[in-house]
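Throughout our pipeline, every protein is held as a single compact record rather than as scattered files. The record that follows is passed on verbatim for readers who wish to inspect the format:
___
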Amino acid sequence: MQNTDIHRRLTVVQILPALESGGVERGTLEVGKYLVEQGHRSIVISAGGRLVEQLIREGSEHLAWDVGRKSLLTLLRYVSRLRRLLRDENIDILHVRSRMPGWVAYLAWRGMPANKRPRFITTFHGLYSVNAYSGVMVKGEHVIAVSDTVRAYILNNYPQTAAAHIRVIPRGIDPATYPLGFQPSAEWLATWKNQFPQLIGKKVLTLPGRITRLKGHEDLIDLIARLKAQGDPAHGLIVGGAEEKKQRYLAELRDKVARFGLQQDITFTGHRSDLREIMAASDLVLSLSTKPESFGRTVLEALSMGVPVIGYNHGGVGEQLARLFPQGRVSLGDIDGLLEKCREIEANTRIKPCAPPPTLESMLATTLSVYESAVFGYDNNHFVNCDLNKP
């Protein structure tokens, strides 16, 4: 029988390095907005960023603490401060979304009397390197895994983690935001064509994601060079910004484009806030990370709109493609396979996924149910509380 206190207002703290862009950051905003809509209090701790304004507009509170900086000084500065916050604000849930903030949170939490602590939740967002530093992400009383791939990774690499303490909650999308057959507005299309006239009449292959060595940008360049050599009117679109420390790699990519003579065939858009429209206006979306991804949210978004996706068949991306669009899978590093798949899919082709993509509503409702089961102690779909005094 569920505790009648389940309907009382919860106060939830989510903690992560910053709120600039990315799937972790977007998920944080989505959970915060949902909590507020359900009558709960949402607090987010981060160093800040471009998404803070939206977070606050949607009803959450934000504390600008630089908890993501990898330094002993971060622990010295913020552990006691966070502990005071947890005590003074009667926090019910402390939800960790990243490793360095995770250590700040864990040490603050462990320093409280066991009967005064909030419930400690972690989300294992990535396939982190296996070491003591990453180990904080399995210290949660409840551990959320964003895919079956991540759950298997946890059990394989952190065997001390009980399977019953892990809850798989796939990242979800709003089908109303990414409806099958979505088309950008005429105004957006006109602006887009004015900004990037080099795309007109081309088969547009879009690779979304921040500029980093693991996202497969060099494979995209090789692919476009091969397609161009065969007379295919393809254009590669790299959508994503480069942080300051990634500027050298961005310069390397631009140099490679120039060496291949592809300046008119590959475009770097930088950071964009209209990725939905860009993917909908593309002929293909690519997911070419050379390291397995934990999930790969843009794969879901594109497929939900009916835009074909071709991706390397490993990690969370391979998991999603196997369920939703198996013909889009290619072996890691197989440029010949990519070339064949790209040529098979005609320009302007639209598809229907084999199954409904996971929804945002399901993700949010299930996350809230984890919070409630942690606080109120009821058994929710066989998801049980951990030992609250576990080190």
In short: The two ends are 29 Å apart (CA to CA). Residues 379-391 have pLDDT under 50 and may be disordered.
